Amino acid sequence: MTDQSRFRPLDSAKVPRFAGPASFMRLPLARPDEVDIALVGVPFDGGTSNRTGARHGPREIRNQSSLVRPYHHTTLRSPFDVARIADCGDAPVNPVDATDSLERITGFFREIRDAGAVPLTAGGDHLVTLPVLRGLSRGTPRALIHFDAHSDTYDEFFGNRYNHGTPFRRAVEEGLLDPKRMIQIGLRGAISDAANYDFARAEGIRMIFIEELMARGVADVMAEAREIAGAGETYVSFDIDIIDPAFAPGTGTPEIGGVTTFQAQALVRELAGVDIVGADVVEVSPPLDPSGITALTGATMLFELLCVMAGAVARSRA
């Protein structure tokens, strides 16, 4: 087994946070076959329908993640104490060919799957989740816990069936996800057609709109999410636009009336015990937020997910 001590963030008492290489959480670079959890980027926004810029998300999330410290303040535990974690680089993309990009991304995540690592991904627009799911697939549909302002189960846009509004419809159609074990949390905002949610409803996908989330509270909703996902393998997708743009304005399709950053952290913490086989944070668009707060929020949500995922690694070794 690879030496656990190698996979730790740079010590800020020895190397200042503004110095050293820009990697996720100041971790070393490594191959997927050396780690339990692979932090990776997918710098792709070829599926964006309006405001672009999410291709720059992974790089700026890396920069802002230098502010992430190793120990979680509520548990006083560090994911780096219990799991081998490293920055495993970016998926290859083709900036002028979305179809080729999907194939390249799929191959990259297939290699991660075959190496035995669990990927935690920084996007990129939400279309990237589709090739991630393709690459991780072992032939059996998985559960999905999905945090988002949008269902992303639309059929097409301008005749194109592969964009950031369609990944979960395609994933259901391709047998990558089990719609009866899917839950979407935080949905809101005006829609372009009254039929936009028809596919999700017809397939039995559980949709929780923001009004229900606020009325019931985080703990109750997440208890239902864990029940729907069950004991089987589950993918977690976190679109930054579940968060109100007052807190995270740098995203392509902002919707007011979302959760606070504190509520977002609480939602992710309630994933403890779920069998997570992969997760992502997507739709961070740094050019739309020069302050950097959205990328910092993305980096912090990656850390929250990382703590949950590392806890699962620790339990598997117990």
3D structure, described in words:
The protein is an alpha/beta fold and 318 residues long. It has a single domain (21-317), classed as Ureohydrolase domain (Arginase, Chain A, 3-Layer(aba) Sandwich). It is 31% helix and 16% strand. An 8-stranded parallel sheet has the order 2-1-3-8-7-4-5-6, with helices on both faces. Helix 8 packs parallel to helix 9 (293-317). The chain is globular, with a radius of gyration of 18 Å. The mean pLDDT is 96.
CATH hierarchy, class = Alpha Beta
Strands, total number: 8
As a whole number of angstroms, the C-alpha radius of gyration is 18 Å
CATH topology: Arginase, Chain A
Poorly predicted ranges (pLDDT <50, ≥5 residues)?
A: none
Per CATH, which architecture?
A: 3-Layer(aba) Sandwich
SSE string, helices as H and strands as E: EHEHEHEHEHEHHEHEH
How far from one another are the termini? 16 Å
CATH superfamily: Ureohydrolase domain
Q: Tell the overall outline.
A: globular
| Overall average residue pLDDT | 96
**Class derived from helix and strand content:** alpha/beta
Strand order of the largest sheet: 2-1-3-8-7-4-5-6
What is the percentage of strand-forming residues? 15-25%
Count helical runs.
Answer: 9
What helical percentage do the residues reach? Answer: 25-40%
